[in-house]
TrEMBL record:
Domain of life (superkingdom): Eukaryota
Matching InterPro entries: CD80_C2-set (IPR013162), Ig-like_dom (IPR007110), Ig-like_dom_sf (IPR036179), Ig-like_fold (IPR013783), Ig_sub (IPR003599), Ig_sub2 (IPR003598), Ig_V-set (IPR013106)
The keyword Membrane appears for this protein: yes
Protein name (Swiss-Prot/TrEMBL): Cell surface glycoprotein MUC18-like
Gene3D superfamilies referenced in this protein's UniProt entry, alphabetically: Immunoglobulins
Gene (UniProt): LOC106556155
UniProt xrefs under CDD domains: Ig (cd00096), IgV (cd00099)
GO biological process: homophilic cell adhesion via plasma membrane adhesion molecules; regulation of Rac protein signal transduction; regulation of wound healing
Region forming the signal peptide: 1-26
PANTHER family per the UniProt record, alphabetical: CELL ADHESION MOLECULE 4 (PTHR45889:SF3), IG-LIKE DOMAIN-CONTAINING PROTEIN (PTHR45889)
SUPFAM superfamilies (UniProt xref): Immunoglobulin (SSF48726)
Gene Ontology terms, MF aspect: vascular endothelial growth factor receptor 2 binding
Length: 361
């Protein structure tokens, strides 16, 4: 074998040894330029640039890409004489070195969030390197709200669990804020409690559940609630809002009214009329309507309809309302008056013969 051939083989062996070690090489005067931080969206492709300028009439010997910190790094891919070499087969489908020596990572995962080091072997000029921190993120799915139950009784002494807000498969961990009538709800002793649960999925993505508990009052029947998820995507703070919802507040009956729906109208025979009994509780009380104790009407909704009212329908009607939670009974009455007109009957008189001088009337 010729002497020149031996020298070439020896030089190549030295280059391969240097690329494998990744340390202990002489510092080169060539500067490797890399961004401090690169943002990537999970599932997408990211490119980490590695830029350097070679002196005139010189070329690179190898490019090494490592992951991890300087003292505990791991080689993942190399480029030697324009040929890629993967440290492990698991990297073949997702990692490549581009023509400009950038590292290309496809289908980014949570586990790719690391520090990446680009090392440039410059032959007799030595070795230069720099590093970039890769930060990954993913927007969570739209928040979902689920009510704990169908109804919530007012005036309970302690907060009741109302609803959960769930934001699934985000990264990094999002946070959840609750709103009532567009105002932020903060934890408050004996009034409002907010409890969060963080779940790390097998994929590394994070699901967060937030449970809202409040001390329910009657006025909450008109309140609008929703939750908001705060998260970071590609270095930018973002939000997502759930649909708003109301809660079914249960409270006892305190008052009952019993009225004629045409209150300002005089009824006459043949008119339609409706008597309406209404309690102010939720759920409504159980109604019993009657004219006398012996005459009860079937009116579960508290409404008694007369499709063609008669004079005999006149009289005092009573409504009794039973609250099925407190078992307290309420009563109210209404006086129904039906106007009528009897048509007079005229009977013709027999023939009369008035005497002379009598009035004909």
């Amino acid at each position: 074998m010729s002497c020149g051939r031996l020298i070439s083989l020896a030089l190549l062996g030295c280059l391969l040894l240097a690329s494998s070690c990744g340390g202990g090489d002489a510092e080169a005067n060539v500067e490797v330029s890399m961004p401090d931080v690169v943002e990537a969206e999970i599932g997408e492709t990211v490119i980490i640039n590695c830029e350097f300028s070679l002196p005139e009439n010189s070329s690179y010997a190898y490019i090494n890409w490592f992951s991890g910190e300087k003292m505990a790094r791991k080689k993942i891919i190399s480029l030697i004489q324009d040929k890629e070499d993967w440290a492990e087969d698991q990297y073949r489908d997702r990692l490549n070195i581009a023509k400009d020596f950038s590292l290309v990572i496809r289908k980014v995962t949570v586990q790719d969030a690391k520090t990446y080091i680009c090392q440039v072997g410059l032959g007799s000029l030595g070795v230069s390197e720099n590093q970039t921190k890769l930060q990954v993120s993913k927007a969570p799915e739209l928040p979902e709200v689920q009510l704990v139950k169908d109804g919530f009784r007012a005036a309970e002494p302690t907060p009741q669990e109302i609803a959960t807000c769930t934001a699934r498969n985000g990264y990094p961990a999002p946070s959840i804020i609750w709103y009532k009538n567009r105002e932020v709800l903060h934890p408050k002793d004996k009034e409002t409690e907010i409890r969060a649960t963080v779940i790390t999925e097998s994929s590394g993505l994070i699901t967060i559940l937030s449970m809202l508990s409040i001390q329910v009052v009657k006025e909450d029947r008109e309140a609008q609630f929703h939750c908001q998820v705060n998260y970071t995507l590609m270095g930018t703070n973002k939000t997502a809002v759930s649909e708003s919802f109301k809660i079914n507040v249960l409270y006892a009956t305190q008052n009952v009214t019993f009225t004629l729906d045409q209150a300002n109208q005089e009824l006459k025979e043949g008119d339609n009329a409706t008597l309406v009994c209404e309690g102010d509780g939720n759920p409504p009380p159980e109604y019993t309507l009657f004219k006398t104790e012996d005459t009860q009407f079937l009116a579960p909704d508290g409404r008694l309809l007369f499709s063609s009212v008669l004079r005999n329908d006149s009289g005092v009607y009573v409504c009794k309302a039973l609250d099925l939670h407190t078992f307290e009974e309420f009563a109210a009455s209404v006086d129904l008056m039906v106007n009528y007109l009897d048509v007079p009957t005229i009977f013709p008189a027999g023939p009369q013969e008035p005497a002379e001088g009598e009035d004909l009337l």
